[in-house]
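Supplementary Methods, section 5.1.

A reviewer requested that the exact input to the structure prediction be made available. We therefore reproduce it here, unchanged from the version used in the analyses.
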Amino acid sequence: MKLLEGTQVVPDVAELLAVILREKKPKRVHHFELFLDSEVKDVIWEKYELGKDLKTSDPHYHLKREIKLHEFLGYDVFRYEFLPHSIHFDVPSVDTNDTTSISTQQRGIREWTEEHEGPIQSMQDFEKYRWPKMSEIDLSDLEWFEKNLPDNMGVYDLTAHIYEMLSFLFGYETLCYKMVDEPDLVDAVAEKIGHFYMDYTKLMCDFKCIPYICGSDDLGYKTSTLTSPEFLRSHVFPWQKACAEIAHKNQRPYLFHSCGNLEAIMDDLIEDVGIDAKHSYEDIIMPVTEVYKNYGERISILGGIDVDFLCRSDEEAIRKRVRDTLDVCMNGKGYCLGTGNTVANYMPYENYLVMLDEGRRYNFGM
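The structure derived from this sequence is encoded token-by-token as follows.
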């Protein structure tokens, strides 16, 4: 028997929202994932022959494929990028060969953000930079989902990359200098970024098929935040808070994804920004079960099965880890099962499916 066979999950976006808002204990384990790399999707799509009823000539094949794939995997809501890179913030990258793909469909190139110098180094650069415009966004895919997504499912996109875009546009190294040497320039760039994501959040809230808003801003590494908490409080959190307020005004929870050790700013995120749920955890920082014990009475906790663990462990260990995590986190309210970050193309896809499979078995007491 293949993984995921013998059990079935029917999407239920309404109950997922109740879980995120910590309104009640769920009837079953719900899942949350930031995204699956395309190579992982391709392998699962082919292995389980999910495309038998779809025609590749269909102009909406790629959208129907996303629905069918995530429905099969048991997701109530899945991520889809509505903001293409062509109109997003234009930032340089460093390319290198990708040797870690799990499938025969090699990615070829993996991109890394340029950490030294971004496109904005001066006020002159700021003034001539081509800032993205909301009017340039192609809404055709979102409009199709609005009309055709099953009523029991939802879709979302990541928004509010405030700190990330600051570090991308300046370069992380340069940003650290500019905070001191040219604070007015940093203020101006932050304001441009913040207003763009406020507008994008408002746009997302115009569509019923989007059940929640998910801000995404990697703020730390394994021992600390990437900049001082004071800088985040003055330049990042006001914009994150503004996006959260837009979401709440439109009856949407505000989820927040951030990698790194955020212990110094968790109270800010919960009490000031107003996040309803937090995603991204690493065992080396704090296992998700400990996070749940510390914060599970205040916000929902999403994911947390460590990515490194999933990459290196065998089936028995993964199943035990999932059961142990659910025994702690499903004992209360506000938990969704998922990886600590994303389903990366270097993760053996079978290990990812074992995690999902054990979550389903937990539902049925198997």
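The chain has one domain: 13-364. These observations are discussed further in the main text.
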